[in-house]
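Below is how a single chain appears once it has passed through the pipeline. First comes the sequence as given, then the structure the pipeline wrote out for it. We keep one example in the README because the format questions we get most often are answered faster by looking than by reading.
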Amino acid sequence: MTSRFGIVSDSAIMSGECTDVYFVHTDEVLRAEGCNPDVTMEITAASLPDEWGVVCGTADVLSLLEGMPLNVSAMPEGTIFYPGEPVLRISGKYLDFCTYETVILGFLCHASGVASASAHLTVIAKDKPLYSFGSRRQHPAIAGMIERAAWIGGVAGVSNTCAPAGIPLAGTMPHALIMSVGSAEAGWAAFDRYAPQHIPRIYLCDTFCDEKFEALAAARAGAEAVRLDTPRSRRGDMRSILEEVRWELDLHGFTSVKIFLSGGLTKSDIVAYGDIVDAFGVGGAIANAPVIDFSMDIVERNGKSVSKRGKKGGVKQVCLTEEGKRILLPESSERPSGGRPLIVAALENGNRVSSDTSTDTYAETSSDPVSEARLRLQHFLRSLAETNK
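Resulting structure:
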């Protein structure tokens, strides 16, 4: 079931073996009882780390359920959602997907958490590029998922080479390169000699010396930008360090040399330094983002609305009005004039619903689903900004 690195295999996930044991008990008991109702289950989050979240991970859910006798509708990846709004629903015989609840929630909770954190950070950074540098903070088996979700969430690039094709890679050098050759100047020179020309000359400037002196030396060596990754134990007043670096660069005629900041950055850091820093490399704040605490609940059984305590029964829809207002209403209700449904058909009896037959009209034309999801989020963020004016 698992590999030498403790990774659960695709076959174990696809067969339903990767599940919580109580779903195994449930499956056994219901089969013995001869009970297998037609149900609709909805996935919602009662609360979020921030005001809104970004749907991500749906592609994995559809890959899992494709070919099964199930109907699936969902908010497409890159869609903004709010607490209490269903992001995905599954209809079919309960025992056909009972043991998959664990992995379905895992796909959505983790990827949506990363995408949501990335989106909020990029909003805070405004026009300053923000890059995902945090895949090393997670198990390497999920590096591709982390970078994919971060890209959908709006980052300008990612560092891990296992990111899906088409996502731009970013990063030039670690401290280890400079320490291996013995000096910052030797490290920069070696990088400039051998690194492909399309890679920007962004030189790390805090390995051995004061940041402003290394930054000046890097600028004289032809740096396009200087990267500060100063450990928190040495930072002191980071604002003062950044101001000193900018001052000295400008004073000596290197006004075009930019400052790239990385190393344990948080939302508050981006707010605090956004006026002086030109780009950010963010690690744990993206890769270790809080997961979205989705739950998956039966809302209809054998055609009748049901709910457990604390949940709203019945199949629901989220409509977006022409004015940008979101309305949660029963799926059977009449939609407001001009209202667009955010939950759209994805699988019908296990078969993919082609994009030209869905009602998803929020994404611009794109050649691949990941870029389409990213564009969809950008559309929602623009609409959100307009609504909040």
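The chain has two domains: 34-101+294-387, 115-287.

See the next section for the split statistics.
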